[in-house]
Amino acid sequence: MITSVAITGASSGIGKAIAYECAGRGMQLALLARRTDVLEAIASDIRQRHPQVKVVVIALDVADTDAILPALQQAREQLGGLDGVFANAGITAVNKTGAGEFRKDQHVIQVNLIGGMATVDAAARIFREQGKGVIVGISSVSAFKGIPGSAAYSASKA
Predict the structure, then answer these.
(1) What is the Cα–Cα distance from 31 to 49, expressed in whole angstroms?
(2) pLDDT tens, 95-141?
(3) What's the distance, CA 30 to chain centroid?
(4) Residue 8's closest CA among 145, 102, 121?
(5) CA 21 to chain centre
(6) pTM, two decimal places
(7) In whole angstroms, what is the distance from residue 54 CA to residue 31 CA?
(8) Active-site annotation holder among 105, 153, 154, 156
(9) Which of 139, 132, 138, 137 has the alpha carbon at shortest distance from 4?
(10) Among this protein's residues, is 153 annotated catalytic?
(11) Positions of E strands within the chain
């Protein structure tokens, strides 16, 4: 039974929706993202709607892969355990190939692919230690049908 989860990219979009869904099911939450001010507002709203749910906020930029394992360990400590991790953090950037802005594409790959892989790896390490846990990786329909001007995003989701 899953009673506590960590969600990367919880400040907006799918991550935010996952947080509200899990809170509605009574799960304890660790919300992780770069924008802690936004996370604090979400956490406050969740606490008002679901007073029985413990919600903690942890700053994390998954582009900094060395920060991921310590952040998930912090989530486990603050929640008193960790049963699931949603590897959800992601960004998009429109960049026409050959436009001279390759760093945009490089950053998308770093966050969406490398950051996602590092999140899964860190979660697997924690769950192997404790003998249980569930990892969910979030992707996009762009994995199956690319978006014009978003080659890096589509590739990172595939």
Answers:
(1) 16
(2) 888 888 899 999 999 999 999 999 999 999 999 999 999 999 999 88
(3) 10
(4) 121
(5) 15
(6) 0.95
(7) 11
(8) 153
(9) 132
(10) yes
(11) 4-8, 28-33, 55-59, 84-87, 134-137
